[in-house]
Amino acid sequence: MTRGDQRFRILIADDERPILNAYQRIFTEDRGLDELETELFGGEVRQPVFSKFDIEYVQQGEAAVAAVRHACNDGNPFSVAFLDVRMPPGIDGVEVAKQIRAVDPEINIVVVTGFSDLYPQEIARQVPPVEKLYYLAKPFQAMEIQQLALALTQKWHAERTLLAAHGQLQQRYADLQRDYEKLSSLVPKVADHEA
């Protein structure tokens, strides 16, 4: 699959159906500007950015943890998880974030809440690392969600690309080191032959 064809996965967990519907609209109904631009200025209709996303919606924390576990086991992890804090009757979003982080340390987690009884610093303390944890207050704006989804997915993809390149460089270094040792072991034999 080429980079242009690559699809990225996002997980959204919220117990309220209207909130899930709002997320769904954010990721599926943002197509009007490209069509308007094409109508006004001509050219081809570009593929909407969010059509490159596979989004999974769940209503309970336990289902979110199971979805992340399943995605990792399948080798197709989520780049971002948007988690509501309060999802009764099950575990809350902070506990979900801790469990998700244990399953997939690379996922970016966005904690989304309408309540201010749990400070972002406390969430960060419970769900490190802080550079992969974000906080968003409800009511959120569509543009906030879109920008976070795009930016965090690009960050996640860049990190994975760098890790893969680093692994390849380490392998290449090990191969070169092995070749060097083989050649070094031949040098004394050649010198002994000449003497």
3D architecture notes:
It is a single chain. The protein has 195 residues and is of the alpha/beta class. It has one domain: Response regulator (Rossmann fold), CATH 3.40.50. 54% of the residues lie in helices and 14% in strands. The chain is built from 6 helices and 5 strands, in the order βααβαβαβαβα. It has a 5-stranded parallel sheet with strand order 2-1-3-4-5, sandwiched between helices. β4, α5 (120-126) and β5 form a beta-alpha-beta unit. The protein is extended, with a radius of gyration of 23 Å.
Going across the biggest sheet, name each strand in turn.
2-1-3-4-5
* Beginning-to-end CA distance, first to last residue: 58 Å
Mean pLDDT across the residues is 83
Proportion in β-strands: 5-15%
Number of domains: 1
- Number of helical segments with 4 or more residues: 6
Radius of gyration: 23 Å
- Named at the architecture level, the CATH assignment is 3-Layer(aba) Sandwich
CATH topology: Rossmann fold
User: Would you report the number of β strands?
Assistant: 5
CATH superfamily: Response regulator
Look at the structure and give the CATH class: Alpha Beta
Biggest sheet statistics: 5 strands, parallel
